[in-house]
Amino acid sequence: MRIDLVSIFPDAFAPLRQSVVGKAIEHGLLEIHAHDLRDYASDRHRTTDDEPYGGGPGMVMKAEPFLRAVAAIEAASGSRGRVIVPSPQGRALTPAVARSLAAEAHLVFLCGHYEGIDERVPLALRADEVSIGDYVLTGGELAAMVIVDATARFTPGVVGDAASVAGDSFAAGLLDYPHYTRPPVVAGLDVPAVLLSGNHAEIARWRRKEALRRTLRRRPDLLAAADLSPADRRLLEELAAED
Ligand code: 9D3
Fold it and tell me: What tens digit of pLDDT does each residue of 10-67 get?
């Protein structure tokens, strides 16, 4: 997959060269190009924003630099790509959205600042606007990196263990169970005995119960939407009886 990112802060994308996504780039599974929006401005001050039509506070990112950047990316790559505009007004990023983006050969992210981008950019490019949640960021760059990271996990070969993507907590609709590794005592806290028992059926049952316990306490909204087996419902009854 090829990913192009357009921003007035192209250096902000440096973290993508690290970690799991960085490894995917090194292995040739992903190709990432960061572009400076100012390179596509038309005046000697390299202006990329202007006052809002209709008045009001702040500045709006001009349309033409983004449109010229997308045209240059298309000319250089030989494909238009699916254009994504990270935006607080977008549809929510979910595992299904990330999975659908992972099926594309080419993604182009246009990152805004200030009050946002001229509405004719997403209209002209038939872009998808995507939000990463109900909180306010200062710009689209961090959101673009979150979307790239969540998408890259669904690209075959990026996450070493495919079972870890398929068995992912959100894929199952529940929060994950608690994890432990050596040593057996940390800060006076023991590892739950069942995990040292070697009884794999009991371990699987304990993990499912703890996943249900956490989801019930922390994310009852997820639990309401999850499709639960009769065994899950019995575990939930046990949890209800515990307190
Ligand atoms: C200060 C301007 N705000 C007026 C009420 C609106 C606003 C515009 C641009 C708020 C934030 C931003 C910058 N945010 C993003 O570009 C963004 C974002 C976000 O802020 N939250 C969640 N997902 C995303 S995706 C892109």
Answer: 999 999 999 899 999 999 999 999 999 999 999 999 999 999 999 999 999 999 999 9
Q: Indicate which residue of 115, 119, 190, 237 is catalytic.
A: 115
Distance (Å) from CA 209 to ligand 1 centroid: 38
Domain boundaries 2-162, CATH class = alpha beta
- Taking the centre of ligand 1 as the mean of its atom positions, its distance from the CA of residue 153, in whole angstroms, is 25
Known catalytic residue at 57: no
Q: Is 74 a catalytic residue?
A: no
Contact 85, 121 (CB under 8 A): yes
How far is Cα 159 from Cα 224, in angstroms, rounded to an integer? 29
Q: What pLDDT, on the 0 to 100 scale, is given for residue 10? A: 98
Does the annotation count 192 as an active-site position? no
Ranges of CATH 1.10.1270.20 domains, the chain: 174-242
Pair of tokens at residue 237:
């009854």
The ranges of the chain with pLDDT < 70 are 166-169, 171
Location of each CATH 3.40.1280.10 domain in the chain: 2-162
Tell me whether strands 185-186 and 60-61 are parallel, antiparallel or unpaired.
unpaired
Catalytic hit among 88, 99, 207, 232: 88
Which among 168, 176, 210, 232 is annotated as catalytic?
168
Cα of 87 vs centre of ligand 1, distance in Å, is: 6
CATH superfamily for 174-242 is tRNA(m1g37)methyltransferase, domain 2 (1.10.1270.20)
- The yes-or-no answer on residue 207 being catalytic is no
Q: How far is CA 30 from the centre of its chain?
A: 16
Q: Around 28, how many Cα atoms within 13 Å sit in the side-chain half-sphere?
A: 0
Q: Is the pTM of this model over 0.90?
A: yes
Ligand 1 center from residue 86 Cα (angstroms):
8
